[in-house]
Design a protein that fits this description.
This protein is about 60% helix and about 5% strand. It contains 23 helices and 9 strands. α14 packs antiparallel against α19 and α18 crosses α20. It starts with a helix and ends in a 5-residue tail after the last strand.
Length: about 675
């Protein structure tokens, strides 16, 4: 799978070099990622129609692709060498010819020269290496992974299809699917091992860092400020923490940043946009980025909409021809609609809506009253402001929100602006969990830059690319804080929008310290920001290293309970008894939405597991002929449990409402 990405990139990049298409290597990488994702998505959907998502099928389709791409790459390279040789100057009657070793030597030479000139980039390499190592070593253990991210993968593998299935945990079929599609292939090709599940988020984390630096470069930032933008992203506790899990926010952020990077090409060009092959390829990739972003996490689409509106304003101001824009939009539209269509059809079949109520409108505010919207914005915006530099800063910002709510006569914990009416609270600055980490450095720098811009509003060139990006990224973040219903885990949704702020921050610092008199201020800001970023990253690394080293996340299956250790003994007792009786099929009933399901699959390797007594929308997918050998029951036990006339009377109580139900008399 990974090899295919590299070879797609090689083919695209060589083709552009041969055809003298003016493009960066990063644009080729974006194209390779979009094409690779399209292939994986199409393979998954087509094989699911025939219930053929299994090892042999996936091995065949990926092996075939690798073979075809390798042949194409060899042919492309041969043509490239011929064209380079025929056009090169002669040296002593012999042509200078490029070859693989020479190309590799040049690449290595450029890399050495780069790090000699900018050794501080080694800090980013060290952070990246630490993240990749921890991602591989750490056993998936967070709540989302154990309850719905990973259970859906093993269900799909069991069913050999990504079609919906009967489940007591509706989030397993209602949540965005794209990241799990990738890990489904990883799981099956690794023959049921989950060693590399976290790598998707880790790779996304590194890609996001590169893209943040590249966007800063598009905004005119020099090497030092591109480094600073990358460090800001990599030092965000929430981005770092998620890189070690199977959460999807870094992965979704990749598609948003790809979209923005491509859009900046169109917004920043002096010439009018015309309908040609280059523009069509670019908008089609942008369309795919929208589709993949929606299927990864729809929340990133807020930012895409605002940046698309900004591009439209730029095109109008530049007086681009409307007919060219309409034709380009017509090319992009199928790239958006077609990939999301299969999942929409599944959702309409199950929920009779484009999404379930639990993952759609429920995430957004439930009111349009300005006072409530302001309080919701205040709760979300200040969520990342607690800092270790201010004592009890979390309590300070809580008091501000409460005071504002009293003045505006707003119920602070109203369900319309608080998920399930949860009491408003904030996390301390030292919270580094993948759902709860706060990110004060980026937010305080955003506030600082915003104040600076306001103070120099008359000196700002509002027609420049940098100012357009400033306004669009700031508006996207603020509108998102207003529209997203507050919850205690809200910071994970903000990863994408905080990433957009990183290039904006460094761009504004560079622009506003260009004069000779402000150079000392520039170096001071770079030094202080870099120091705080490095110190914060060291703290986050130490926190997650301790989870791996001392909290049990270094082994399976008990590593699955590293962040919630109490149930481990019950799961071990239940699964040991099932294995001792050699049961082959297990009925599963989960009364609570927070029950861990994935560990059961890994501890009962080889057993068929199906949810029973399903009473939600997914009940229509229940296998009417399934009669399990035993039942694992989590929750209050009813007087009797009968499935298709088979009564499960023998009950083993493991405590804390963990039960194993078996048939009496070998029924």
């Amino acid at each position: 799978m990974l090899l295919a990405t590299v070879m797609i990139y090689g083919n695209i990049h060589l083709y552009k070099r041969r055809k003298n298409i003016n493009s960066t290597g990063l644009s080729s990488y974006i194209g390779a990622c979009c094409a690779w994702m399209l292939y994986l998505f199409a393979v998954t959907e087509v094989l699911s129609l025939f219930h053929m998502v299994r090892f042999l099928s996936l091995f065949a389709v990926w092996g075939t692709l690798d073979g075809v791409l390798f042949i194409m790459l060899v042919l492309q390279w041969g043509k490239y060498l011929q064209e380079m040789g025929s056009g090169s100057e002669t040296d002593g009657g012999r042509q200078k010819r490029s070859h693989w070793p020479g190309a590799l030597r040049r690449m290595c030479g450029k890399g050495r020269q780069f790090f000699r000139e900018a050794p501080y980039y080694g800090i980013l390499l060290a952070i990246g290496a630490a993240v990749v190592c921890l991602a591989i070593l750490t056993t998936p253990n967070n709540w989302d992974s154990m309850t719905y991210h990973l259970p859906r993968i093993v269900y799909w593998a069991q069913n050999r299809s990504v079609e919906h299935y009967a489940t007591n945990s509706i989030r397993q079929i209602s949540s965005p699917v794209l990241a799990e599609f990738i890990n489904l292939h990883v799981y099956i090709l690794c023959r049921g091992r989950d060693l590399f599940f976290n790598l998707l988020q880790a790779a996304s984390y590194l890609t996001c860092a590169v893209m943040v630096g590249a966007i800063a470069g598009r905004l005119g930032c020099d090497r030092k400020f591109r480094f600073l933008a990358m460090l800001l992203y990599m030092s965000m506790p929430i981005a770092y923490a998620e890189a070690l899990t199977t959460q999807v926010d870094n992965f979704a952020t990749v598609w948003l940043l790809f979209f923005v990077y491509l859009l900046l090409d169109l917004a920043g060009q002096k010439e009018k946009i015309i309908f040609d092959r280059v523009a069509v390829c670019k908008v089609c990739m942008m369309g795919l980025c929208v589709a993949w972003g929606y299927l990864a996490k729809p929340s990133v689409c807020f930012g895409m909409v605002f940046f698309a509106l900004w591009l439209l304003i730029v095109c109008i101001a530049r007086k681009d021809r409307l007919w060219h824009l309409v034709r380009l939009a017509g090319c992009a539209l199928p790239c958006v609609i077609l990939p999301i269509l299969p999942e929409l059809l599944r959702n309409f079949k199950t929920f009779h809506a484009y999404a379930s109520a639990g993952t759609g409108a429920r995430q957004l505010v439930g009111t349009l009253q300005p006072s409530y919207l302001f309080i919701n914005f205040l709760k979300n915006f200040t969520f990342n402001m607690p800092t270790a530099l201010l004592k009890d800063s979390d309590e300070f910002f809580i008091r501000i929100a409460r005071k504002a709510a009293r003045i505006l006569q707003v119920e602070l914990n109203a369900k319309s602006i608080a998920e399930d009416g949860l009491e408003y609270s904030m996390h301390s600055p030292s919270t580094y969990g993948c759902d709860t980490a706060v990110n004060p450095l980026v937010l305080w720098l955003f506030v600082f830059c915003s104040v600076w811009v306001v103070l120099q509003i008359r000196k700002t060139d509002w027609k420049s690319l940098q100012s357009g990006y400033l306004l669009t990224s700031a508006i996207s973040f603020c509108v998102f804080c207003t529209a997203l219903r507050w919850e205690p885990f809200v910071s994970r949704y903000m990863v994408s929008y905080l990433a957009l702020l990183c290039p904006m921050i460094v761009s504004q610092i560079q622009i506003r310290t260009e004069t000779e008199s402000r150079r000392p201020l520039r170096y001071a800001l770079i030094g202080i920001t870099g120091f705080l970023g490095v110190i914060g990253t060291v703290s986050v690394t130490h926190f997650h290293y301790e989870i791996w080293a001392y909290h049990g996340a270094d082994n399976r299956p008990y590593g699955y309970f590293a962040s919630r250790r109490d149930p481990a003994s019950y799961y071990a007792a239940v699964t040991d008894q099932i294995k001792s009786r050699q049961y082959q099929s297990v009925g599963l009933y989960l009364m609570k939405g927070d029950d861990y399901e994935y560990p059961l699959w890994m501890m009962l390797d080889g057993c068929r597991i199906e949810h029973i007594y399903v009473e939600n929308e997914s009940a229509v997918y229940a296998d009417q002929e399934f009669t399990p050998d035993c039942i694992v029951w989590f929750g209050a036990l009813p007087k009797e449990v009968t499935i298709h006339g088979r009564e499960y009377k023998e009950v083993t109580d493991f405590g804390e409402e963990y039960y194993l139900l078996e048939c009496s008399g070998g029924q």
